Amino acid sequence: MIPLSSLNISFASIMPEMLLTGLALLVLVLDLFIREEKSVLGYVSVIGLIALIPVSARTIEAKASFGGMVMADEFAAYFNVIFIIAAIFTILISMDYLKKMNVRRGEYYHIILFSTVGMMVMASANDLVTLYVGLELMAMSFYILVAYRIASARSVEGGLKYFVLGALSSGILLYGISFTYGASGSTNLSEIARQLGGFQNPFLILGIVLITVGFGFKVAAFPFHVWTPDVYEGAPTPVTALLSIGSKAASFAAFMRVFMVAFPAFHAQWGEILWMLSAATMIFGSVVAIAQKNIVRMLAYSSIAHAGIIMMGLLVYNDLGAGGVLYYLLVYAFMNMGAFAIVALFRNDRIGESISDYSGLASRRPVLSFLMALFLLSLAGIPPTGGFAAKFFVFSAAIDARYYWLAAIGVVTTAISLFFYAKVIFYMYMREPDGEAVMPESGVLYNVVLLVTAFGTVFLGIYPTPFIDMAIKAVKPLLM
Amino acid sequence: MTGPEITGGFPILSTLIFFPALGALFIIFFLKKEWDVLIRWVALGVASVEFLLSLYLPFTFDANDPGLQWVEKTIWIKRFGISYYLGVDGISLLLVLLTTLITVICVLASWTDIKEKLKGYMALFLLTETFSLGVFMAMDMFLFYIFWEAVLIPMVFIIGIWGGQRKLYSAIKFFIFTFVGSLFMLLGVLALYYYHGKLTGTYTFDSVVLSQSIIAPAIQFWIFVAFFLGFAVKVPMFPFHTWLPDAHTDAPTAGSIVLAAVLLKLGTYGFIRFSLPLLPNASIQLGPFMAGISIFAIIYGALCTIAQKDIKKLIAYSSVSHMGFVMLGIFVFNVEGLKGGVLQMVNHGISTGALFLLVGMIYERAHTRMIGDYTGLFKQLPVYGVFFLIIALSSMGMPLTNGFIGELFVLLGAFKANIFYAIPVVIGVLLGAVYLLWLFQRIFLGNYYYGGKGPLLDLGFREIIVALPLIILVFWIGIFPKPFLMAMDASLNNLIKQVETNYRKGSDASANVTARLQAPSAERAGQ
After folding, report:
1. Which among B77, B180, B187 has the least Cβ separation from residue A464?
2. Average of per-residue pLDDT across B359-364
3. Which of A267, A384, A415 sits opposite B179 (nearest CB)?
């Protein structure tokens, strides 16, 4: 019998998760009493989330708690802040969006909050079981959110697709977890590493492969990306934004922790798998995005390509690469959210979907066009934006670790990706407006979101020092 | 790594870089779309003040000091050894002045030409100035890269929004060519950073520090190729020149001027500033190859020029030929050649800039650029004809004009390096005379014929004022080039010396390269 004290039960270490669960439940209950103006729930959620930022930034414990199940280290804190930021922006742009789409149901907000709880659990999970619970909580919430526009066939189709493939990928992940458990006799990440040593067990390698597949689904890596474009297109646009930022970041958080803490001895093996996945993902995502005519599908393929680059940071296995992943995801939260916010504003059932609808937007909405151009240039990685700094860190990490070919592929695909990002900018600025596509006015909340994301995108590019230092400090303990 | 240091008191270089950007922001945020006249005057005011400010540099310049002057340096991203490091020496001084002067001319050249979206137009020109000056002043390779990439964006918009018939195509082509090239350059910069870091233990992007210890020649070769792809596209060198005729043809007049006079110089400047001192072994080994394709570009560009029917395209192709002279001057590795190369950079900026300016003036009247639409204009437009003749003569290198001095130095350098370089170069000079004089003859001499739309008037007061500074410079450099040559003398001598010593250092480094290459792989296996 293990003495209770050795489990290190520290509620402080799960404070952000507990508070956020409380907030979600509060919103759930409030929903019963607020009949008309559901956006009040959104305000409550946003205020709660903002208050949560300092809490989660400060919840840092160097020691694993709850018998090694939870690790509330700086790594988790960094990711938690990314999730909260993404959730805040998502809720802010959702309020207008839901009104526009005529959706007046309150559960939207607390489902977003629950999905954020799931992400946080994933980031701080130090045990494969905790991780799986977090992942399922997040995934379940997203299944609902994706299909939220029940009147739209595409939304339901996307939801169903996501559910079926997501369940399949969870199953594969679980299968991999069980192989790992069989080989090591534990689900605790540090314990797995200790038990395995460097012993090459074929079943363990199978387990690693299956876990890679499971995470590959979640981060939308080629060839496990097939759900991405349809789901992104079908989901309400703010949900797509959260899916592409929060879900991806959470999956990478878990991905990193599992591979760096549990399987460091097998870097040669998983490094090779990820090398191929990363290269294929970057090439596939950026090449296929060129052919897209629908802006959401284009951004979906762009998000696939970004997953490939982020994976590069993970597989090079040094402090700069791993820190680069954290930094990249932080920047991505701002620039991708900005781009999706504008798409969400423009898009309704008939127009704003096709890239050609953006023709001549610059003369009608100069400020919005400028911001969209900024976000797209940042996604393309052009200095002095944050997107450039993030790519710079990851590529330099790859070169430092002598992954020259991978870095070269990254650079080439970045060049390719310029085609489709620049295409939208060219449409906005250099074409005459066609058709009746008129972008609606952006409300105050929208302007706040756009300004903050634009500021973040530029600031992270001009002054990345503190954020990259924090990221590197956060991943140092993982790189034993 | 050195601590933050700002030498020389007042940060004149930062002021020069960011003043136009502030002007651009002012225009965007404080002026209304409808205030056309005011926008023009504010833009002109900003550009002129900037030019006057930049005149501070030649007056305080110490021609005997080969090093950087007005240095500003402070740490930016410490972890990577990135600093905000600016400096100007004899090589960049003239280019900085050229940039500030050309911007004033661009604003004036667009005075009546541009009527739509004037606000954005003027702001973009000022931004182009900011970023180009940044490229010429940045001594940190990371900072350099940022300005290098950034300069692309306003230019693409200028071509794509205010351009001619195929503006979208040309803008995209320009964007993609240069961006792809630059990405390879970025890889090269990163590789240089890491190899230098592994060699010395100091990880830094500071180009002065990078040039003090030279990496092994085998690695230099690949980095040189990466730099080459970035710089050669901008120059543009054969075979990466195909974006240039399109971009020039479709750009608005002022866009063509700034493209020819400033943006093309960024590439050649990059070769001089970074490829030569940082990669001396690769530069010297590949020197004959570089000289070869430069000579090819001179002849090929000239032959293409002769065949053109569109005046703007003709001048664009002549740029390919002229930039070949610059590149040849750089890669013969002697002081004469380099001097000629740098001077020719300035000359090309003046002459080709002026040619585009003059073509823009007639296009504004007639809305056609076809040579066949004009004959015998000299009697109708005497002032215009004289201006055009002067500039054409200067562009082909007539004695007493600037082109002569530049081409002479390049030729001297080529002779000194290898007599076989010089023969095709002379042919290139002759071909230059052919296409320019033939162009002049076709447009201005013979019986009067005019196939354009608008009334054909001679130059107005504003147009003469715009062109006059360039004409004065043509003769000034042609008759009394001494101040210009003196300014670059010390820096270029120092550069040659540096290339030679670094070449030896690089050869020494090759001895133990194998040992170093094996060491890190052993280290990685240990993880």
Report:
1. B77
2. 89
3. A415
Query: Among A344-348, B270-274, B294-298, which stretch is predicted with the lowest mean pLDDT?
Result: A344-348
Enumerate residues 6+ apart whose C-beta is below 8 A from A209: A176, A273
- Cβ of A419 and B176 within 8 Å? yes
Domain edges within chain B = 298-479
Looking at chain A, the whole-number percentage of residues with pLDDT higher than 90 is: 50
Helix (H) or strand (E) holding B516: helix B513-525
Q: How far is CA A427 from CA A371, A454, B171, in A?
A: 14, 21, 12
Helix segments in A12-152, DSSP class H: 15-33, 39-58, 74-100, 107-124, 128-146
- Report CB contact under 8 Å: B190, A464: no
Asked if the Cβ–Cβ distance from B79 to A382 is below 8 Å, we say: no
pLDDT averaged over every residue in chain B:
87
Q: Which residues of A touch B187 (CB under 8 A)?
A: 395, 399, 407-408, 411
Is B8 a residue whose pLDDT tops 60?
A: no
User: Which chain A residues contact residue B160 at CB under 8 A?
Assistant: 426, 429-430
Q: Band the pLDDT of A348: cuts 50, 70, 90.
A: low
Q: What's the mean pLDDT in A71-83?
A: 91
ipTM metric? 0.75
Percent of chain B with pLDDT over 90: 40
Reply yes or no on whether the pLDDT at B514 is more than 70: no
The kind and range of the H/E element at A205 are helix A202-219
* Band (B379; pLDDT cuts 50, 70, 90): confident
Q: Is the pLDDT of residue B4 over 70?
A: no
**3-state DSSP call for residue B30?**
helix
Cβ separation of B161 and A429 shorter than 8 Å?
yes
Minimal-distance CA residue of chain B relative to A360: B161
A400 with B149: Cβ contact below 8 A: no
A426–B157: do the CB atoms touch at under 8 Å? no
For the whole model, what pTM was predicted? 0.84
State how far residue B340 is from chain A, nearest Cα, in angstroms: 33
Sign of the dihedral defined by the CA atoms of residues A60, A63, A65, A68, in that order: positive
Alpha helices by DSSP H, listed for A401-464, are 404-430, 444-462
CA-nearest residue to A461 within chain B is B146
Long-range contacts of B506-510, Cβ-Cβ distance < 8 Å, separation of 24 or more: B506/B214, B506/B215, B506/B216, B506/B217, B506/B220, B506/B280, B506/B281, B507/B217, B507/B281, B509/B199, B509/B213, B509/B214, B509/B215, B509/B216, B509/B217, B510/B216, B510/B217, B510/B218, B510/B281
**Percent of chain B whose predicted confidence (pLDDT) is above 70:** 95
